Amino acid sequence: MDCILFGILNGVSIGLLNLSLGFNSIGFYQMTKLAIIPFTVLLETLFLKKQFSQKIKLSLFVLLAGVGIASVTDLQLNFVGTVLSLLAIITTCVGQILTSTIQKRLNVSSTQLLYQSAPFQAAILFVSGPLVDQFLTRKNVFAHKYSSVVLAFIILSCIISVSVNFSTFMVIGKTSPVTYQVLGHLKTCLVLGLGYTLLHDPFTVRNIIGILVAIFGMGLYSYFCVQENKKKQSVDLSLASQMKDRDSTPILSMQDKEISHEARKFCNYILG
Hints:
globular
């Protein structure tokens, strides 16, 4: 049941993000993507009791400021678009946190979780996609005559989507939802840079400054994460050596149980 609800949630998240892009300006859509990181930090702090140091928060702020400077232009607001953006932020954050917590709680790999949840994700999109599209455009996607070229691009798009889903689950499972979002903003910077280099898109001083600030923020985030992980590992090893003579249960396993307990509570709260 967890995988069913998880797959449906991810499918709804994808649909809401696409609808948000359709009802909002590109600038506001970029703001929506920027809001995912702070909202994820908030949820993990409240429900998983995860602590983010001031250094990590500062690096994330620098990163988001840089991406905002580089990519956010016009901010045209409308009620429907704003509501869709809020729902997209919530479902995306919850889905990515669950991607991490379910793998830890059930002790499954990213491939196993994707294999179990992907059919339900595809089903919800296959059912809702044509209905929503017909409601918004008054056109039936099944009535369109698809050429061989269009079909080839559809198949290619599906293959790329599977690859993206696989890498998403693997990165979140091995790192964290916040780190995955940081990598996502690196993609934004690369898209802007390649657009200028290969397609000769307009590129301003603002874009250059924003990308440089964002890359600096990513560097800070990576450095602080590595330093904190090293510090945590040294503390854990020290505690484990102290407890070795007192208790046969390693301290690391006890910490894993605490993390698993918080993850289980979050999953139960979200998935019922």
